[in-house]
Amino acid sequence: MKGTISDEIEVNVPANVAWELYGTLHLSRFIVQELPNVLDKVDVIEGDGSTGTVLKITFPQGTPGIPYFKERLNIVDDEKRYKQSEVIEGGYVDLGYVFYGIRFEVIEKDEKSCVTKFTVSYEVEDVKLANHAFTMVEPLQTVIKSAKTYLIAKSKN
């Protein structure tokens, strides 16, 4: 079974300002610093944040399910403002997902605002896991809401 889940939020900052956060490794550092209940740490295993970068994402102790996963950034497109990653080890793969990927996009609405969006794509053989996928997007919803607050505050400085 294949599926996708997505969510988006409008942000009153220019798209290029939002992409400075979403399109770089700064997003990982932001999550660790501002949302320590979501991620404990992010280690760069290989790369510089561009296409091909491999990250080890570690969850806080006591997080149910999975202690960590490694993801590879398959696409980082600065012109179209999107990046796409795939879990390649641990995490969702260990839980039984055949494929688990995340795409972040920054879509220009006008010169002063944009929409930030995430899409989770997954493939599972066990249908019960597909139902579990919906609960795993809650942290991503928290990320885009917190990023919105951060970006708006930063733009006022």
UniProtKB/TrEMBL annotation:
Source species, domain of life: Eukaryota
Pfam family, one: Bet_v_1
Database matches in InterPro entries: Bet_v_I/MLP (IPR000916), Plant_def-hormone_signal (IPR050279), START-like_dom_sf (IPR023393)
GO terms, biological process: abscisic acid-activated signaling pathway; defense response
Annotated Bet v I/Major latex protein domain residues: 1-154
Regions annotated as coiled coil: none
Entry similarity comment: Belongs to the BetVI family.
Protein name: Bet v I/Major latex protein domain-containing protein
Naturally occurring in which organism (per UniProt): Nicotiana attenuata
Organism taxonomic ancestry: Eukaryota, Viridiplantae, Streptophyta, Embryophyta, Tracheophyta
